[in-house]
Amino acid sequence: AGVSSGEIVLGTHLDLSGPAAITMPPIRNGLQMRVDEANEAGGIHGRKLRFVIEDNGSQPPQAVRVVDKLIRRDEVFALLCPFGSGPGVATVKKTVDAGVICFAPYGAAALIRKASGDSPLLFTANLHYDTTTAAGLKWTLAKLGSKKVGFIYQEGPFGDLVGKGVKEGLAAKGMALAAEAGYKVGDIDFSSQVARMRAAGVDLIVGATTTRETIAVAAEVKKLGWSGVNVLTASPGRAGTTLSIGKASVEGLYGIGGWRITPASAQGPALKRWSDSYRKRFNMEPDDVALVFYDYASWFMQGLQATGKDLTTAGLVKTLQASSFKGESSYETQRFKDNHVDPEWCRVEQVVDGQWLPRSEIIDPAKSSL
Amino acid sequence: MGAFDSASLSQFVQLGLQGISTGAIYSLVALGLVLGYKATEVLNFAHGDVLMLSSFAAWYFIAEAGLSFWFALPLVVLLAALLCWLLEARVMRAIVGQPQFAGVMLTIGIGFMIRGGTSMVFGPDSRSYPTPWTGHATTLGGAIVADLNLVIIAAALGVTALLFVFLQRTALGVAIQASSQNQLASYLCGVRVKRLNSLVWAISGAIAALCGILLAPISLVDLSLWFVMLKALAALVLGGFGSVPGAILGGLLIGLIEQFSGVYLPDGFKDVMPYLVLIAVLVFFPRGLIGEAHGRRV
Amino acid sequence: MSRSHYQTSYAEGRALLRTREQRLLYGALAAALVVAPFAIPTFYVGEASFIFIMCIASLGLMTLTGFTGQVSLGQAAFLGIGAYTHAQLLTLGLPLPLSLLAAAFTAGLAGLAVGLPAIRVSGLHLAVVTLAFAIVTEHVAGRWKSVTGGHSGLAVPDPVLFGFSLGGPLPFYFLCLAMLALVLWLLLNLMRSATGRAFVGVRDSEAAAQGLGIHVARTKVLAFVISAAVSGLAGALLAHQTQFITPESFGLALSLQLVLMVFIGGMGSLRGAIFGALLIGMLPSLISLAKPLLPSRIGSQFGLELFVYGAVLVFFVLLEPRGINGRWVRIRGALDEFPLRRRGGFRRQKAYMRSERG
Amino acid sequence: MTALLSVRNIETWYGPVNAIRGISLEVRPGRIVAVLGANGAGKTTLLNTIAGVIDPAKGSIEFEGRRIDGRDADAVARAGVVLVPEGRQVFTFLSVLENLRMGAFARRRDPEAKRDIERVFEWFPRLRERQGQAAGLLSGGEQQMVAIGRAFMGRPRLLLLDEPSLGLSPLFTKEIFAIVQRIRSETNTAVLVVEQNAAIALATADDGYIVELGRIVAADSCARLRERDDVRDFYLGGAGGHAAPGAAQAARPQRRGASWR
Amino acid sequence: MAFFEVDQLSLSFGGVRAVRDVSFEVAQGEVFAIIGPNGAGKTSVFNLITRVFDASAGSVRLLGREITGVARHDVVRHGIARTFQNIELFEGATVLDNLMLGRHCAPHGSLLAQLFDLPVVRRAETATREVVEDVIALLDLAPHRMSLVAGLPYGIRKIVELGRALVAGPKLLLLDEPASGLNPEETHELAHWIRDISDALGITVVMVEHDMSLVSAVADRVLVMEQGQVLTSGTPAEVQSDPRVIAAYLGA
Ligand SMILES: Nc1ncnc2c1ncn2[C@@H]1O[C@H](COP(=O)(O)OP(=O)(O)OP(=O)(O)O)[C@@H](O)[C@H]1O
Ligand SMILES: Nc1ncnc2c1ncn2[C@@H]1O[C@H](COP(=O)(O)OP(=O)(O)OP(=O)(O)O)[C@@H](O)[C@H]1O
Ligand SMILES: [Mg+2]
Ligand SMILES: [Mg+2]
């Protein structure tokens, strides 16, 4: 379904109104921009793309309804980067059961995969937080020589997964977690979590925190004048916005990166053109997240293109499984292995003078043995 | 035993101070709620959203328009007061006399509109702006507190004192309490009830704006700022609805409980402890810790 | 033709369908509901099942809030408890009907636990106690991994009855419809007998209720238990609808939606609960259907859904503070007296706030 | 002499219920005017309409030559027309003293207000004893005293009383009416009083109106009204207000269905 | 043993001694009135009898059974029903439902039976309805049967409340100022009803009342209270001529 002589219908559901709406604009814009570009270039094998975006409010029941709508009413051919672990887990089975491809959902990839019953129609491009965290943490422990590690995490699947990685990383070094402290989305104050870390005397805080909380934790550490400690944020906290909003308070912060952030000064001509085009389209500054989702969409378009005129679900699945991709946001070329992106390139970086600078090599967690 | 050696003592002081300064935020938000409730017996669920909107407005004036903080502060406070005045005069007034819950529903709707509207106008992403106190901290008795937190404590104290005097000592304040108890009788006494209600909402809006402006630099200008309303609600009920000192007490208690349970209890208790305490307290003090006298004569 | 109708026995006075017209009307409605799923696109069949589930939950809350006057801001917790119980028991192999019953029962027990403080606490204080309970429940659901699967969630087995799967859109539609009909019938019975009257009595005057021999505390707790049990049933069905349950499915947003349903529908009326669930339940879909009609500058703004949602709420509360049911009753009244009705009927008099403290 | 208050042909509705169907009446300065009528006749509605508590759908109300209909109740009160409403309506959580002070809210800067409180305490010594108590905890009669005292604190030129004797002891009912007369003679305040206790109302007032089904059916001086047979039958309980002992054994009167809607 | 006895009953609120050592006895079938100045403690005595307040001292007995310790909602099962000075009706319900609620103390089937509307419930409902209809007929409430209480005039509400208390089938009926707000004609009619209730239904009535015409018309005996204490008691005629009562209550 979803493919007619003149049109391919794609859909997604994002949190346009709920607690995660904050992070949605670059995601939506990145996806939309790639779709628009494809249409401007005459479509894919002559078929125009129609992209339907729905609001899931980060709520699973609501997500189930919009996915129903996308599948049954809009009859989409594929879902492109739907957002949220909860919504993803709740809807992926429905999606694949209806024969609809789910490409690069943004959320806990392992959980979504499990919920899908390991369906071949699901392609996950988002790194597994546990494996990358474990790899990044192992490198950091070796490099910084940290003795006691604490963990601040967001309650939810994201925090759980990073936590799993933290424990694995520590176990590999024969260490155990010295302290952990959770928080809820919407908490305004992280002093008690940091105080807990301090009371336990840790010298490395790992944060399963998104932008806002990463900044808050770093700022709290700075405020206390607590010098003997490093802060390492797992993937989503290591973003461009952390710098632009956090400013001085995030100086010195470590982060595990899952994609390349290229400072404006170092951008090549292709990236510059992309940035200008983005600015023009959306009247706002592009950021790394927008580029990541633009790249995901590109990978998908590449698959569509390569499948050829005779587009079927099975055909596309086959093409994607055999495809490889390197975008401006990828560290290195990646492909799909068992429908999951491989290798899961990651890198430990640090904020220096308001920029993420590489500290480690590019790591393949599957092979990392530090 | 040495359980209170100097290190743990200074940690204790640090937690206490931090608890008080977080609690002061809750108290300040709760105060705004109490005030609106006192006059119109409407629990304003849009209060947190006014607070959130104010922080966006402050960001706009300071970071975008480049006004100085000291100019933006009164401006935003004034605008928020105006907004709330209009809300009362144009919207809330239409359901006077309807069951109390109609007001709650209406403000929930208004809250959604404000949140949706803010996100439509400004976009949903978070941002920040500088204040004169950003990045400064003070050492007090071995504990370190951000200056901004001290300012918030001072603001909470100041607002409380003003409100207390206003409500208890001035004729207008007594009239506010009177109209909430019996609006009809208040009209019959010649009180300009409508204007008074709008005024109270305006003051409450001003307090929300003050909270928003002071809070945003700590937790960023963000759509989820309204969440603080939930904690304030808990504070309000813990202290006793409709009581100014109750709101302060409740807010501080919740702040302290969070801090101490965050460090001294196993992980996971911090977030639910305030609510567990709340339920326990209400079972023994059904009207909150310093709730109003009750009982209707039959 | 006059609609007046003379009753010839007391039993007739409490019959559910009193007049011929009513029997015809509701008969037609029932027939339509049975035929409809075969005639409409599958997407709408799924939507209808969801609305039925919301109707059940809304009826549950109406029992508590609309009839007994106890506001609950944490109703979603009971749905959650029902959903988790159901998912676990189904996984253990319990047959569907028993598991549904057990879900209602467990939620009812939780209702008992929350109801006990409610004996002493009232009004907004109670509302916040229930809110606190829901926050704690959600938290526990996230942490108690062995039972709930934590934030990773729990898969819900397909509903199977006598070896026949009810998971597909059509069978599930009829499962939900049947459950709704059952719950509605039970609650209608309850509300027209002594316990239902006692609920209203406790709501309107505790002093008088006590004087008439109503055990106020027990009645309040009973309302909590019944309301929670009905909500638990709704939760169990909702679990099938989402097929995978996570704690955030049962958060504050759902609780607020339920409160909005009973209020916008019209307090103190089962019909109101259904009206409210219809409106609030369909609103997100309606907004999403209407979005393509908007100019894309506005249609693509973030927060548009929330804004429109809020605006519709505000519109309805302002239009009819007593709920859709209130308007329904007035319109019906106006039709009944049609030629005799004089002007001024819909004009609103000045009104004054009456304190509910004390 | 021109009228202090003149009500012309007002009509008032509660949604679909037409409670007043065209009433006109006048109160001249310094006069006490009584309004009598069965339950549900529309007396309370009449007073509420004059006081601005509800709006008339038709007709005009003039006070001291100025239109007051359609204004809000607070504006009417400040104009000098103060209502003691049905059901007392005290501020339950405020003390007796604060209740009285609220009565003088519109003239809270007037130094005379203090003296007026003394005066109210003189009339109602019981209130002086209870001045610190929350008004909601007072007995029914005590609350009535608070309501009347509070209205007086507004120094009205026209006082509207809705069943002031409701729930008061016989002695106190007499006192209230004596006080009403005192207020009138000391301050030349005109009074419009609605009363079920027709005997005492007709004895105190100068002029009287009788309302039935939202219309005036009789208007005259009280002296003449007292003489009328129908008034005696219906409003004075047949024998000057006090049914003789044993009257209950008399034949049961047929209820006049018309006055019950 | 007297039918109904109140013995040395006392109540204080903080410093205010609202009721002090009040004792009286009422015989079966009697109409007994309590009068006294405002704030004398009459309503408080009613509230003590129906257990709204806990007495500081003293006891209340009906047919020799102690009432002072029973739960509030059990008072009616001991045969005592009351009305309230400020009318406590269920505003959101119809007159019929208000009256049906009056009979809550009668058996009405278990919760499960109610949920499934079993025959036992239907029978109980019909039985209740029959009692209610009798009262409706007695008090001429038929035209208002289906009206919402909230829109009724004051006088009708008073009667509805009286009816609700009657439906409970009490042995002892407490009426708090039943005639307040009624005009003389209606009061006159009320007098008949109270007599009917007492004579025809055999219910003992204790009422608090300020309208002496009603008291004279129906009361067998009168108790006069002042400042929480018993001032005197006697027949209506005796009491009305007592100089202390005239000074404190009736006025010259
Ligand atoms: N809020 C209301 N809604 C609907 N009808 C009302 C309302 N208030 C009064 N009425 C109706 O208006 C009519 C007049 O009522 P009103 O209270 O003015 O009578 P009243 O003469 O003061 O009676 P009473 O002696 O009982 O105080 C009555 O039929 C009453 O039922
Ligand atoms: N809950 C309370 N707290 C404090 N004082 C109270 C309370 N209830 C009653 N009182 C006081 O007790 C006294 C007796 O009140 P009660 O209501 O019994 O009087 P009453 O005889 O019924 O008077 P009325 O004829 O005016 O109704 C009053 O002075 C009243 O102020
Ligand atoms: Mg009246
Ligand atoms: Mg009394």
From TrEMBL, chain B:
Q: Does the keyword Repressor apply?
A: no
Q: How does it sit in the membrane?
A: Multi-pass membrane protein
Q: Where are the transmembrane segments?
A: 12-35, 42-62, 68-89, 101-123, 143-167, 199-218, 272-290
Sorted keywords for this record are: Amino-acid transport, Cell membrane, Membrane, Transmembrane, Transmembrane helix, Transport
Which range is the signal sequence, renumbered to this chain? none
Q: Which Pfam families match?
A: BPD_transp_2
Its subcellular locations are: Cell membrane
Task: Say which family it is in.
Answer: Belongs to the binding-protein-dependent transport system permease family. LivHM subfamily.
Recorded protein name is Branched-chain amino acid ABC transporter permease
Organism equals: Variovorax ginsengisoli
Automatic annotation (TrEMBL), chain C:
Membrane protein topology class: Multi-pass membrane protein
Protein's organism: Variovorax ginsengisoli
User: Pfam families in the record, alphabetically?
Assistant: BPD_transp_2
Q: Which CDD domains match?
A: TM_PBP1_LivM_like
List where in the cell it is found.
Cell membrane
Note the PANTHER family from the entry. Answer: HIGH-AFFINITY BRANCHED-CHAIN AMINO ACID TRANSPORT SYSTEM PERMEASE, HIGH-AFFINITY BRANCHED-CHAIN AMINO ACID TRANSPORT SYSTEM PERMEASE PROTEIN LIVM
According to UniProt, the name of this protein is: Branched-chain amino acid ABC transporter permease
Q: Does the keyword Repeat apply?
A: no
Q: Mainly localized where?
A: membrane
Q: Which residues cross the membrane?
A: 24-44, 50-69, 100-119, 170-188, 221-239, 245-265, 272-290, 302-319
Q: Which InterPro entries match?
A: ABC_transp_permease, LivM-like
Keywords per UniProt: Cell membrane, Membrane, Transmembrane, Transmembrane helix
Indicate whether Membrane appears among the record's keywords: yes
From TrEMBL, chain D:
**Entry GO MF terms:** ATP binding
Superkingdom to which the source organism belongs:
Bacteria
Q: Where is the signal peptide?
A: none
Keyword Cell inner membrane in record: no
Q: Which Gene3D superfamilies match?
A: P-loop containing nucleotide triphosphate hydrolases
Q: What keywords does the record list, in alphabetical order?
A: Amino-acid transport, ATP-binding, Cell membrane, Membrane, Nucleotide-binding, Transport
Q: Which InterPro entries match?
A: AAA+_ATPase, ABC_transporter-like_ATP-bd, ABC_transporter-like_CS, BCAA_Transport_ATP-bd_LivF, P-loop_NTPase
Which residue stretches, if any, does this entry annotate as coiled coil?
Answer: none
Which Pfam families does the entry link to? ABC_tran
ABC transporter domain ranges (all copies)? 5-238
Asked whether the UniProt record includes Transport among its keywords, one would answer yes
The UniProt annotation puts the region (Disordered) at 242-261
**Matches recorded under PANTHER family:** ABC TRANSPORTER SUBSTRATE-BINDING PROTEIN, HIGH-AFFINITY BRANCHED-CHAIN AMINO ACID TRANSPORT ATP-BINDING PROTEIN LIVF
Instruction: Tell me its family.
Output: Belongs to the ABC transporter superfamily.
Any idea what this protein is called? Answer: ABC transporter ATP-binding protein
Gene source species: Variovorax ginsengisoli
UniProtKB/TrEMBL annotation, chain E:
- List keywords of the entry alphabetically: ATP-binding, Cell membrane, Membrane, Nucleotide-binding, Transport
| Ranges where the ABC transporter domain occurs | 4-252
Endpoints of the signal sequence = none
InterPro entries of this UniProt entry?
Answer: AAA+_ATPase, ABC_AA/LPS_Transport, ABC_transporter-like_ATP-bd, BCA_ABC_TP_C, P-loop_NTPase
Identify the PROSITE patterns for this entry. Answer: ABC_TRANSPORTER_2
GO terms of molecular function: ATP binding
Top-level taxon of origin? Bacteria
Q: Which Pfam families match?
A: ABC_tran, BCA_ABC_TP_C
Identification of the protein by name: ABC transporter ATP-binding protein
**Organismal lineage:** Bacteria, Pseudomonadati, Pseudomonadota, Betaproteobacteria, Burkholderiales
